[in-house]
Amino acid sequence: MQFTSIVFILFFAVFFGLYWFVFRKNLKLQNLLLLIASFVFYGYWDWRFLALLIGSSAAAYFLGQKIGESEGKNKKIFLNLGLILAIGTLFYFKYFNFFIDSFAELFNIQNTLTLTIILPLGISFYTFRIISYFLDIKNKKLKPETDIVTFFNYIAFFPSMTSGPIDRGGLLLPQLKKERVFTVETGSDAARQILYGAFKKLVVANSITPITQNIFRNYEDLSGSTVAFGAILFLFEIYADFSGYSDMAIGFARLLGFNITKNFAFPLFAQNIAEFWRKWHISLTSWLTEYVFTPLVIQFRDYEKKGLIAAIILNFILIGAWHGPKYTFVLFGLLHGLYYIPLILTNKLNKKKKFTKPIPTFQELGNVLLTMVIVCFAFILFTAPTLTDAVGMYGRVFSLSFFSVPQFIKLKILALIGILLLIDWLNKDQEHGLEISRYNPWIRRGVYVFLIFMIMYFGVFGNGNFIYEQF
């Protein structure tokens, strides 16, 4: 059930009416309705995996109680058991075949253990919620949730179920336990955010997808400039697709009275790689910063800059591996980690750059363009099906054909990207890209009409799948 589908619109309309007009005065019934809706939303994809979701949630609920009430050795036993179950489940569905195949290939033996495994939707996202819940209880940042409906809602919350954001228990659980209030102002702003997310997905991302797919599937027959152009287009495609999903997820959550984690903060205007990752997939990077990077920095603190470099590289290798069982993802993460080394050596890692004027200076524009170039360069690894394909794509980029005129340049696509960049730039200091309540009402209405027209006239409705659903 995709956010952009008629089925979801009907589903949400019925749910919204029941949620606010029938069950509003009874928090327990409202939460129960929310949980049922989340299970229906998830089960619409494949009802068989509801058992896995419910089982994982039940195990996490029980073990969270045990971690909270135990001390010393017992606490550690229950914590380790919870982590093993959560990580083990994720490993089985996402990485088992990869490691078996790699082991067989490494030792040149016949592989008879490869299984036909379907990756459950959203498993990477809800597994990280479970892990953070355990660790927050262990670190006394969170008390175990005693209400099972509240806890199950935290794991299965449907607006952010399939592609995040990865919310922590400390953010979402308290909101589930208190009365929600709907206001016209919040509802209007949430609708604006949903509208902009739909524009990014249906108009920008879906218009670019056929071009990038054509380029990357046929890179051997194309010029280096065309492959490079494809990498640039893919950056805009994945940004529009993923941030579009996040905008809609946050907007739908706000319509239900919830504030969930912001996932993008206009990363295309980042002036260095550290700033890019502070603004890109924020919920994942902040999760790994707290639970992986910070402990590694403490562990490696005696090694000063070398230790910091090692911690960042290990952290980014994990970011790459989180995306899936492919060497290209691991190298994608490694390359981003290596990008940090100049910033660390020059003590510029934590220096934040802000634009000083409405129009960027040449230096600021140069910083942005350089950041985009190195990000696009790494995204070739991200999009390549295999290492062989990645090497082949890089080979085309570094060939003399790089200096030819690229193919597949379409004025329509460039115009759509220009509109996206303009809207983002004008609102780069706001909470989201269409937070335009500060403007004259006629200007706002004009923007709404324009975006709706663009969706109806240029929207590509055949591709409702979001890129990050596969992770």
From TrEMBL:
Name the Gene Ontology biological process terms.
alginic acid biosynthetic process
Q: Which GO terms describe its cellular component?
A: plasma membrane
Q: Where in the cell is it found?
A: Cell membrane
The source's superkingdom equals Bacteria
TM annotation in the entry = 6-22, 51-68, 77-93, 113-135, 307-323, 329-347, 368-388, 408-426, 447-468
Q: Which GO terms describe its molecular function?
A: acyltransferase activity
Coiled-coil stretches are: none
For this UniProt record, give its keywords in alphabetical order, as a comma-separated list: Acyltransferase, Cell membrane, Membrane, Transferase, Transmembrane, Transmembrane helix
| Protein biosynthesis found in the keyword field | no
This protein's membrane topology, according to the annotation, is: Multi-pass membrane protein
**Record has Glycoprotein as a keyword:** no
Its primary localisation, in coarse terms, equals membrane
Q: Which family does it belong to?
A: Belongs to the membrane-bound acyltransferase family.
Can you name this protein? D-alanyl-lipoteichoic acid acyltransferase DltB (MBOAT superfamily)
